[in-house]
Write a structure and sequence with these properties.
The protein has about 180 residues and is of the alpha+beta class. The protein is about 35% helix and about 25% strand. The strands form two sheets. A five-stranded antiparallel sheet has the order 3-2-1-6-5, with helices on one face.
């Protein structure tokens, strides 16, 4: 009988609040039973780490292309523009039946075609000119194109850092070519 009395005393002192519905804030902090840690662990996921690594790689690729050593695209673009100007003047001479000239304004560092086309050469790009024509004041003659397609011949060398391009005008047939020695 004494056992029965002890059992009834235990059930009367039973706290029913343990089984009552818990509030949202109480369930979020509940330990998972392993070392008392919460279910959400601190740190970064693999996806977050990969995203950060991709962003760092993109930024470093942009920095590398925008720093020193990127002279080749600049020089190539100038050489292509100069070759296009020379080719336009050659074609203009052949179509009009009159000779056309291309000159270099030494003080302004600009190639000027007789048709009005211009190619500016930046200060950080070196320009070497080998031409048979003479100079006329501030203008230095680069090439003269004849109506039959022939030319006076010239070599324009553009260089920056380790990049170098040469634009050549053949004296015999007036052909304009670009070489990267």
């Amino acid at each position: 009988m004494s056992n029965l009395r002890a059992l009834s005393e235990r059930t009367d002192s039973f706290d029913r609040s343990e089984f009552a519905p818990k509030k949202q804030s109480e369930t979020a902090i509940r330990p998972n039973g392993i070392g008392g840690r919460s279910r959400r662990r601190a740190g970064f996921t693999l996806v977050e780490m990969m995203a950060v690594m991709m962003i760092v790689a993109l930024i470093s690729a942009l920095v590398v292309t925008w720093t020193f050593g990127s002279g080749r695209p600049t020089v190539k673009a100038i050489a292509l523009e100069a070759a296009a100007l020379l080719r336009r003047e050659r074609l203009g001479a052949m179509l009009s039946g009159h000779p056309r000239h291309v000159a270099l304004d030494v003080s302004a560092r600009v190639l000027i075609g007789e048709s009005g086309g211009k190619v500016a050469v930046p200060q950080d790009v070196s320009l070497d000119l080998l031409a048979a024509e003479g100079s006329n004041g501030a203008l230095r003659a680069v090439a003269r194109f004849e109506p039959d397609g022939a030319a006076s011949g010239a070599v324009l060398a553009f260089a920056k850092e380790r990049a170098r391009y040469e634009v050549r005008v053949d004296w015999f047939d007036g052909r304009v070519s670009i070489d990267a020695p």
